[in-house]
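INSTRUCTION: Work out how this chain folds

Token vocabulary: learned, describes local backbone geometry

RECORD BEGINS BELOW THIS LINE
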Amino acid sequence: MAEYGEKLAMLADMQNCSVTADFTILSDERTWSVHLFVLAMHSDVLKAMFRRNFKEAREFKLDWSEYHKDVVHAVVDYLYTFNYDTANLRTPFSQTPALHVHVAVLANKYNIRLLHRMAATKVESALEDECSPKDFADSAALAFDYEGPTETIKDVIVDMIVNDQSPGMSDELEATMLDYPELSLRVTKKLRTKALGNAVPAATPQRIRCCCDCGRIFSYVFSDNCTRIIAVAGTTLMTEGVQNAKFVDVGIVSDRKTTCKYSSLTVAIEAADTPNMIMQPSQSPKPSPSMDLDQDARDTLRTRFAEYYDNDAYSDFTIKCDSTEWKVHRFVMSIHSDVLKKCCQSAFKEAQAGNLDLSEHAVEEVEALVYFLYHWEYKLADDTSIFEDLCFHIDMALLADKYLVTGLVTVAKELFAFSLSDLEDDEELAELALKAYDSPDIIADMRSNIVNVVVEEKKMESKEVLQAMRTQGEFATDVALAMSKEIERSERSRRSSGGWADGW
């Protein structure tokens, strides 16, 4: 299947494709040519705006002049790349954490959830990277100017102040806290919680059944209310409040105590007949936010594109084959293929007519092509044989090559290689070889797959395969060359084994 990186690169390439752009975003005197399809893919709010005939939909433009042009640039960049980078903007504002706060606010307004999370993460990184006292205070003020959109950012700022990760209690920050009582209140509550958390309570005896053997603890260890197992070891036992609890080894007893990890807690167990217990939060590393965001970007790209398959919404082009038609999108066609992109340009008759006639191909092939444009894969019919499926993969590779849909060529070859081992009938293998060798060289990989099966499974003894080799000289030559290489490898291996034997 097409790799996620390849899909993302295809989408990013369309950012500068004004030929198929059908919408405009503007901020002050700057404009960006974009695609309705992309806007709707990211935001249900924008999708609703276009469907309900708002002024923006009628005028094919969206005015974001209330936001700084660098903020809009970052958002447009994200729409096509699932990320944004402000390093190349080279303006004083673009290098401040405040830009990311504004991005979060805009993303929240239009319900671009992944962008909202990403902006919050970028705020935190920017505040941690040698942020000046003024920039920190300005970002705090901006975050507390809003009610809902910046809740996550507010938490980050408060945590940094409480944990001494901010530039310090500067004059600017003190002034901001005076202007925003909510900030002062949150910091005060957090400091109080921190102070209480630092107090170490006395160890409390717990009702624990123990069985010690060779210095290892085999025991139940309970939380304070004796209802939740924190760590267990050994075998299966019966105790108060817990039935048939499974044991795992929790560690070796030292003179004073042993520390062992289980689940999300660290438990310090005193070495005594009736152990005491102190529970502390485990310091396991947090998963990287960027990893979560990356996975969400993959999911969004996959599911949002699939939503527009066989969907009239924003459709601006038609692909037809005989009497069957599919409503598609110029933007999607242009992502996958330079040839299909040309069909969408005004100089071509297909663009003027708004349709592409592929009636020279089978309906099933064209249907699979259209499905691939939105899913990066294609489906096979349920009632076909392995042989028919393999022939279909060859036809799909040829169709994809004709229109330079390189991702589809790759998928067809992968599916062919995967399915070929399931073909057991020698007559069908011979027929498949003739079809492959009567096709253009683009399917050379498929030919090699067939030759490898013939050699590895010794299909030369089959009369059907031999007849195909007599009929198709190139097939026979490739089989002979492959056999020669196989014999050469076997002899090298045999000589190598003989050498070892002589040495012994």
Notes: Confidence is low (pLDDT under 50) at residues 202-291, 500-504. DSSP finds 22 helices and 14 strands in the chain. The radius of gyration is 33 Å.
